[in-house]
Amino acid sequence: MNLDLPWLALGSFASGIGSLYLLAQLRTHWDKPGARWFVATIVTQTGWCFSYGAALLVFDPTLRLALEMVSWLGIIWIGFCFLSFALGYTGRTNVLESGWYRGVAVLPLVETALVVTNPLHTVVWQGFRVVPAAGSAGAEYAVLPVGLLTIIVAMLFVSFGTLLVFDTVVSYGPLYRREALAVGLSPIPPGAAVLLWAGGVGPVPAVNLTTLLFLPHVALDLYAFVRSDMFEFHPATRRAGERAAIHDIATPVAIVDEQGRVVNLNPAAEGMLAIDKYEALTEPLNDFLGDDDIATDGGSSRVSIEAGGRHREFKIRQTALRDEAGTQLGYTVVFQDITDEIRRERRLEVLNRFLRHNVRNESVVIQARAELLAAELDGDHADYASTIEQSVSRLVDSGQKARTLAEAGAGDAALESVALADLTAEVVATAREEYGGSAAVEISDDLQLTTQPALLEILLTNLIENALQHVPDAVVTVTATAEGDDVVLTVSDNGPGVPDHELGVLERGRETDLNHGSGIGLWLVRWTATTLEGDLDFDTSDGTTVTVRLPTERAAAEAG
Questions:
Q1: Which domains are present in the chain?
Q2: Which pTM value belongs to this model?
C-alpha cells in the first residue's frame, strides 16, 4: 500500500457521502416524531466527516487547528442530537420538551464555548501541533480533564439514546429483531474509535479514526431504518396510545402493588381522591377511600367517595398485572362511576312498587266493577262494560309480565340443569288450561340445558301464550333439537303471523312514538332470549315460527 495517498481523508469523505445518502433515503420520513433531531444528527455527522477529511489534507497549523475544532464540535453535538432524536422517536416528547432537559442543553453550549475559546485558556487541550501521519496531516496534543469529560458526556448521550431506541424496537418482538440488533451495534465502531483516540491508543494515534468508522455505522443504520418500515411503525404512536389509555381517559385508574399500595394514579384518579399522586405513592389506596375498603385480591367491589363536596358511588374492577414470566406484580384498579346508574335504579324501584301496588290494586277494582256491570246491564251498555273489563284485564296481564321479568332479573344468576321436555310440557298445560287451543310438544326426554330456569320459563310461556291467546283455534307445535353445542327451539302456530311493525320494533331494539309494539309479550321474548345468550328469529311466511338457538351450557360468568 502506498501510504502517501490520502486514504484516511478519502475514507472520511466516503463516510460523509454515506451520511448524505442516509439522509436522502429517509427524507419521506422527516415528518415523523424525532425526525428533526435525526436530521440534525446526520447533518452534524456529515459536517464532521467532511471537515475532518479536509483537515487531514491541511498542514497549515492555524487552518488545521480550526478544522480540529470543528471535529470537537461534532463530538459534542452528535451525542445531544442523537439523544434528542431517541426521545422523540420513542414518544418521550414530555421529556424532550421539559424544562430540565432544556437545562441539559446548556451543557453542550458551554462545551462549545470552551472548545472555540481554547486557544485563550487551554483547558480542553494543550500543546497542539501538526504531524505527518500515514500520508495525512495528523495532530498531536494533550487532551486535558475538561476535554475528556466533554468526550465522556457525549458518549453517555449516545449510549443512553441507543438504549432507548434499542429497547423500544426490541419491544416489537420478532418483527424488528434484526433491525434492533443493527441499531444497537451501529454506535459501537465510531464510539470505540473516539475513546481510543482520546486515550492515545490506536494504529495512528495522531489521527482520529472516528470518521472512517462512521461507514459501518451508516451501513447498519441504512439496514435498520431504510430496509424495513421502522419509521412507519414508529413507537411514539404506541407510547402515546398507552399513555392515553390510562393517563388521558376520564375514568379514574390507580396502579397498586400486591399489598394495595399506590404505584401510580392517572389525573382522573387524582381529582377523584383530591390528592396529588406523588403524595399518595407507596401509601395504601384504602387510606384514601374513606370508610370503604377494597380487597387486594383482584376482585370487584363498590365504594362511596366524597369528591369535591359531592357524594359519588364507584364500582371497582381490578385486573392483575403480571410480567412476561407470569409473576403477579400488582393490580390495575379502575373506578367506574355508577352514581347516576344507582339513582336510576332507585327511581325504577319506586316506580315498580307504584305499579305493583297502586296501579295493580286500582286495576283489579276497576276490573271487578266492570264484570259486575257487564252482568247487570243489557245491550250496548253491557258491551261497554265488557270492553272495559277486557282492556283492564290486558293491562293487569301486562303488568304481571313486567313484574315477572323484573323479579327474574333481580334474583341471582344461579345455573341449573333443566329437562327441556318437562318444563315445556308444564308451560303448555298451563297455557292450554287458560286459553284453550291445541299444542303438541316434540322434544326428547333426555334433552338437557344448563341455564337459568326462571328466564327459560318466561321465554317459553310468552312464546306459547302468544300463539294460543291470539290465534283462534290455534294449533301450536313446540320442537327442540340439539345441534352441536346449541339447542334449537321452535314454536310454530297456524295464525296470520306477527305484524311486520311489531317485528320491526324488536329488530330496532327500541320503540318510538310512531313505532311501538302493542304489548310486552314479544319484548319479554326478546329480552329473555338475549339474556340467555340466545339468537332469535321470526318466520311469518306460513303462520308464525319462532326459532331460538340457546347454548346447551352457559358459563357462570355469562349468567352474571
A1: 7-238 (1.20.1070.10), 249-338 (3.30.450.20), 413-559 (3.30.565.10)
A2: 0.53
